[in-house]
Write a structure and sequence with these properties.
Largest sheet of chain A: 2 strands, antiparallel
Oligomer: homotetramer
Order of helices and strands of chain A: HHHHHHHEHHE
CATH topology of the largest domain in chain A: Tetracycline Repressor, domain 2
CATH superfamily of the largest domain in chain A: Tetracycline Repressor, domain 2
Largest interface: A-B, 48 and 48 residues
Distance between the termini of chain A: 72 Å
CATH class of the largest domain in chain A: Mainly Alpha
Shape of chain A: elongated
Strand order of the largest sheet of chain A: 1-2
Strand content of chain A: under 5%
DNA sequence: GATGAATGAGGCTTCATTCAT
DNA sequence: CATGAATGAAGCCTCATTCAT
């Protein structure tokens, strides 16, 4: 018998509501992303974000606890997307150094070109804004670095080499991230040369490969 | 009567005044540096800066046009210092790849350890705060990148090789800066491990050398 | 055909509905009472009240016109309860001064101990919140004061005395209310000493009796 | 010799500045008092207060940390004034019951009549607004109650009596405060009858005297 | 009747900057 | 030169209330 407390199949209109709610959430997040990338986190006001998303300020606060929560969730999402993207390539490469090449190319030629706003937020706007945000940022970076490091260790085992020092794998992972970051920043955010990113990416990738090799020693 | 416009020999008290003025300027800049590094550019208020420098807000405004001017001059100074430091090593190396090694080691083992606050400001606080600041930041980065690029070209000519592409030298310069930046950020600002910077720096330097070699071709 | 306006015998389900409705009303009022006493009228939001009552905000607005209406009805209810309680004792005492003793003891030893939340709302939360509420509060106080005054006049007639001035009866009534109020506030709300309320109440009651006697003159 | 660090005699203009600053502080406090008494603490906005004081909002925040600080300092001041007023009478009475009479008369006939706004704030607006304020309020009340209690103990010793219970003196002190409070509230704030306060006060005072006597026992 | 997403006016507070002394 | 009181625009956020479903 129908128990009121029991979760029934959601009705059609409930489903639609749910979808609309999710859509709103994404619309607001998108508006904020756009403004943060264009005007900067501090210069973009909550009212502007609401306006661009075509909702009231109250609605923004219905979906996000506060302004910081907005960029926090944004960062979370971008980080997730980035990890997914890079992780896939490393997995497919399965211990060969090819994964590093393909991951780099995917990053420069696809991610950067398709989502320059996300790049700007991830590498510029999320820096130095608040303690909590900085802590979050650190965590996300560390996860990605951990991923890269794991890939480096797999390569090491696969090729039967060892690295220069205990820290080498980690340092290389950090270095690679740093290269990605600044190259994207330089050519995308500062110089608006998405066209050149192909050549640039290939060079960068070769630089990385050379770096890895130079820290590898045969047993 | 002495023409006021004509530069007389400065009197003793004028000299003292001059010295005191310069001292004030530096005190304020130092206080701001401290606070920006600790609390962030936005969270540090002009009043706090004045307090820490033991002057009044008005005095801060006598020496600096506005808050942005403060960080602008700070950035300028740090950039100059950094260029000096790295440039010297490249000059001394005179076309050999040794310059890259020594520059890296100097950066990680001396600059970072001695001036962690400057690192925080240069790589974190100056990002994404205002258009003008961002433009300034870009210029300073470009100068340093230009320096590194010149050094790379000198190495190329010296070793009689050529690089993979037209852009290779530039990309490598950018990459090296990116590595510096993120490694400093990761191990100094985030993990507070100045002790490990020696090992880390050596690995980083070898990574760079490997990268450069891998983008070099013999004629 | 049954005229909709005509009151038919209510069906069973209508009765149930009616009961449920009343129950809801009381649940919401109780939740509000709880929150007003704990967090204060202003700090308690309509959403919190709805949450605690396990209904939606909309439902709260179905039963109460607005937030003020909530505390208004609450006050009304508490005032009614209080008048009932005290009034009964005065009636039973029937002109002797005993009624004042018993009323006081009932107030301190029963009402305060059983309903500290009501005390907090009646004497603290309802003060200084809005004009309308203040007007309501005034009315309720005046009714109670009128009750006490009537009891005092009955005592006067019964004992064959007269009071010091025209206003004496009223002033005494107000004084007694003031004593009740502050003693409850002090020992219940501020010092959480419900245990001591017995001793305290007895002292207070004797104070009142002494006060009344001192304003009485034999003809 | 003149030491720059050493506090010299303040110059005339410094003194004037100091005076002006104090004046501003008082002007703002006065404006706030006026508005709090008229419109209530919550309904009075910081902007209105600034307007009435003829300064900018910023200036209000220069002198007071926040809105709560405003009423906190106000309360402090009123409490101090009240204690002074009552305390003086008790001291002069020196153990006789006369002090209670005079203190009451002073309160009703002078304080209430001269400063009805302060009465409104002390007894109405400061109630139930915030935790910190409530804590402060409690402290101030307790001090006054302590004063009254001390006076009662002196009377006891002087007259060579003892009170009904351990708590009697305290309960009487609380009761007296409660009477003062509600009588002032009733006749001043609610019924605007300052004229009647003389008669009312005399009755109240006699009530108190009777109460005290009734709790006193000869050894 | 019940729901809860949406609204938006209004409040508090901060802080870079100015300027009379 | 130095001071620090004064300014006021601008921003973040809350929350009582409404209304379509």
């Amino acid at each position: 018998m129908a128990d009121k407390k029991e979760k029934q199949h959601p009705t059609r209109s409930e489903l639609r509501r749910q979808r609309e709610k999710e859509q709103r959430f994404l619309t607001i997040l998108g508006a904020a992303e756009n403004l943060f990338a264009r005007k900067g986190y501090h210069k973009a006001s909550m009212e502007e974000i609401a306006d661009l998303a075509e909702v009231s300020v109250g609605t923004v606060y219905f979906y996000f606890k506060n302004k910081e929560d907005l960029i926090l969730q944004m960062l979370e999402k971008i980080g997730f997307q980035l990890r997914n993207l890079l992780g896939r390539e490393f997995k497919n490469a399965d211990g060969s150094i090819e994964g590093f090449k393909r991951a780099g190319i995917i990053f420069f030629e696809e991610f950067c070109v398709q989502y320059p706003e996300k790049v700007a937020i991830f590498f510029r706007e999320s820096a130095g804004q608040s303690q909590q945000l900085e802590a979050h940022r650190k965590k996300i970076f560390e996860k990605i670095i951990e991923d890269v490091q794991q890939a480096l260790l797999k390569v090491r085992d696969n090729l039967g080499v060892r690295y220069r020092s205990q820290l080498s794998a980690e340092v290389m992972a950090v270095s690679i991230m740093g290269m990605y970051e600044r190259i994207a920043y330089q050519y995308l955010i500062w110089q608006h040369r998405p066209r050149d990113l192909q050549t640039i990416g290939r060079d960068a990738v070769e630089f990385i490969v050379g770096g890895i090799r130079n820290l590898s020693r045969n047993h």
